[in-house]
Amino acid sequence: MAARRSNKRKRRNRGRFGILYQFLSLVIILVVIAAGCVVFFRVDEVTVDGESKYTAEEIIAASGIEQGDNLFLISPVQTGRKIASVLPYVDNVNVRRALPDGVVITVTECMPAAVIQGNGNWWIIDAKGKVLEQTASGTGAAVVSGLTALLPVEGTRLAVEDADSAKLNSLLQLLRAFSDRGMAEKVSSIDLTSTANIILEYDGRFTVKIPMNPENFALKVRALDETVAQLQTNESGSIDLTREDKVYFDQTGGGK
Fold first, then answer.
1. Fold for domain 45-109?
2. CATH 3.40.50 boundaries in the chain
3. CATH 3.10.20.310, the chain: domain bounds
4. CA triple 177-178-183, angle to 5 deg
């Protein structure tokens, strides 16, 4: 009887030691793998893909990645955020490891959409409201009036006074609507002075009135595009998009 109890005890002990042995073996294997990653997977080459205002050297420098850095200690997300914060004209960034020794950085560029005044200067912004840079004059993009930037800083989101938050939202939604339809470059000015309607200059020959209702901007921009497409290239005038079901065109000068 005592012998049987002793055998059971030995089997239990062997089972415990077996589990412990397996656990320690797994830990050792993981340590060896981690050590191998640290020792062998070092950055030798960083490449940059995509169209950008910046050179590959500038983008790599902004990433902070250097030759000899460990691939697995590089955070793609944090590196992307760092690049976008240092280089204002960078829109989206994708950073990926290219084993065994490479890193690939793919960037897309922010496109200037409007120019707005703030702090006594002119500032270029994109359609998402990112402040891209200070500029000497209000040229090169749609000039915004009736709205002033609050303490603008390159690489940050455009901010305004609380009382103007609705106008800011309308501006950004309108810029996106024009950008999505490939019409942004034809907008030369955007007047947000009124709280009811937005007045803009389009294609160098049309004054356009759009109701300040962001939910309808996509439809209004499409209606503008379709209306202009039906007109002659020498026609100019005002286009009223404030009615729900009709577009009014008042011609001034040009042929008929």
1. Ubiquitin-like (UB roll) (3.10.20)
2. 112-251
3. 45-109
4. 155
pTM of the full predicted structure?
Answer: 0.79
- The pLDDT > 70 percentage for the chain reads 85
Give me the phi and psi of 149, to 5 degrees please. Answer: -70, 145
For residue range 164-185, list pLDDT tens digits in order.
999 999 999 999 999 999 999 9
Average pLDDT over the chain reads: 88
> Identity (one letter) of the amino acid at 108?
T
Neighbours of 124 (CB within 10 A): 23
What CATH number does the domain located at 112-251 have?
3.40.50
Q: Which helix (H) or strand (E) holds 109?
A: strand 102-109
Q: How far is C-alpha 61 from the geometric centre of its chain's CA atoms?
A: 20
Structure tokens at 12: 């239990």
Where do we find the tokens 């793609």? 76
**What's the DSSP call for residue 133?**
E
As a whole number of angstroms, the distance between CA 159 and CA 149 comes to 6
Q: Render pLDDT for 216-239 as a digit per residue (tens, 0 to 9).
A: 999 999 999 999 999 999 999 999
pLDDT for res 179 = 95
- Long-range pairs, 155-161, Cβ under 8 A, ≥24: 155/84, 155/85, 155/86, 155/87, 155/88, 155/130, 155/131, 156/130, 156/131, 157/129, 157/130, 157/131, 158/116, 158/123, 158/125, 158/129, 158/130, 158/131
Helical (H) or strand (E) element with 176: helix 165-180
Q: What is the pLDDT of residues 78-116, one digit of tens each?
A: 999 999 989 999 999 999 999 889 999 999 999 999 999
| Residue of 165, 182, 167, 170 lying closest to 111 (CA atoms) | 182
